[in-house]
Design goal:
Chain A: One of its GO terms (cellular component) is plasma membrane. The structure holds 2 protein chains of 2 kinds. By secondary structure, chain A is mainly alpha-helical. Helix content of chain A is 77%, strand content 0%. The longest helix of chain B is centred in the C-terminal third of the chain and has 36 residues. Classes of the chains: A mainly alpha, B mainly alpha.
Chain lengths: 284, 298
Amino acid sequence: MRRERRDPVDLLLAVFGVLVFVFLFLPILVIVVYSFNTGRLLGAWDSFGFAAYSRAWNNPVIGDAVRTSLVTGVLASLVSTTLGTIGGVALARARPGARWAGVLTALLAVTLITPEVIDGISILPWLVTLGTDGGLSIVNNGMVRLVIVHTSLALAVVTFIVRARLRGMDEQIEEAAADLYANPWNRFRQITLPLAWPGIFAGALMAFTLSLDNTIVASFVQVPGYTPWPVYVFGTLKVGLRPEIAAVSTVLLLLTLAALAVVWAVLRRSGDDNTSVAATLTGG
Amino acid sequence: MARRTQRTTASLSFPVWAWLVFFVFTPLALVVWYSFGYKPDLFTAVSTDQLSFDRYGEVLDGVFMPMFWATLRIALTGTLLCLLVAVPFAYWMAVKVDPRWRPLLLALVLVPFWTNFLVRTIGWQVILAPSGMASDVLNAIGILDGPLDILYTRGAVQLGVVYNYLPLMILPLYVVFERLDPSQREASRDLGAGRWRTFFSVTVPDALPGIASGCLLVFIPLMGDYLTASVLGGARGTMVGQIVARQFTSAQNWALGAAMAVTLMAFVLLTVLIVAALFLLVRAVVRRARHLDLGVSP
């Protein structure tokens, strides 16, 4: 391929690209920088220090909120990944044109395009009904509620990622296993799961981050004592944002980046090139 | 044998069906049911002993519609701006950047995507505040005299919206641009087409699936989003999602709120159908106009 190093359009594109990156990172950098603000209010810079970190660490409300979010994230990720893996395998192995598969795909797609506020307002009366008239008192528990709504949010994403992963795979390997008298469970465990593994892994991570990020639906169903971190942050908007929020966010950002790096490395090791890693991670 | 495998496959999906029916579609059906009810008195959120379409009448006459149009304007402008920024950016990343650097840049695009939505919006609040960074910079280079007055305006909401949804536009575009075959562009140039002609008649048509999915990925969540608006728009930044939410929280009028939710949902579904139809139409027109099928199936 011919390379035109001094091409003005290329140069312009490169400058534009760098500017977009600056735009993308600006507010994140601001949050990281202002987490070292020793003042009482987030936006009013006082001096550099670690006061916000120690105050956040010693604040039991913040601690509870972060703990609630992390536990919810793990549980919702487990439930939605289990269900989504089953769904993804079933959809990938469905006969082309099977009606049940079409309907299921459509239903899952509807959950993807439903605005979060509608998820929130619809699930709240239902949980209240189940918990009071239905006698299912377990749904009155704040953690159970959060896990339910976050599983519903992530289910379609996990299912589609797993399905996309398995679609490219050779179905004959499974048929060969069946011919060799592997029972369905062994076939699933020894053939299908290892094949789908990168997709399952990526789906689990997506489910976790979706849960950790969710504010709107969680704010509807949350019960006192189980306030997740984003809902806590949203609540402090009205009373004044403090640097503690930036401090916790910085720590969470570092954790997320570490998790992302691990997933990327695992997917790369399983033989994907970078583009398909990106495609897997974004559900494409 | 094959038939039995198919039946196993279908029954394998049962837990997913059960979850969807019990935790997603029953609640949604309940909302549709509520939307035909009414609010009988101050202390009851909804009653469905008399069914009517009156709530939908209220939706069309009340505060919902002006908010809906305002939200639609922000969402359409936001989608268009995201597209305008993301097309050259994704093209640059997928085509111009040295392949060795692409994974790193892609990972960098994903970082904001995986930072808490609310927190990165709060970052903009700090930047755009009258005494904030943007104000200082603009004053220093002489563009502005005095404090910046953009926070809690529509402009700030628009900026925040473009920021928050930009990665969702970049990713699908990157994927389609990366999959393009460079030899097609070279062939087009060799056959005498200029840079722009090549871009618009070779690259863009093949990128259509990415453009369509990017637009939907941005537009749909944007129509329901009210976090960006409450952080950056203050009282003036009310979005339609907030109006719906308010009926279920402070106003406790579930019937009206349900009618609003159904209206919003119907609009979103309609949008998806229209975009899908447009996509098929444009692709058909492009195929016909191009005379020659380049043999690339998306």
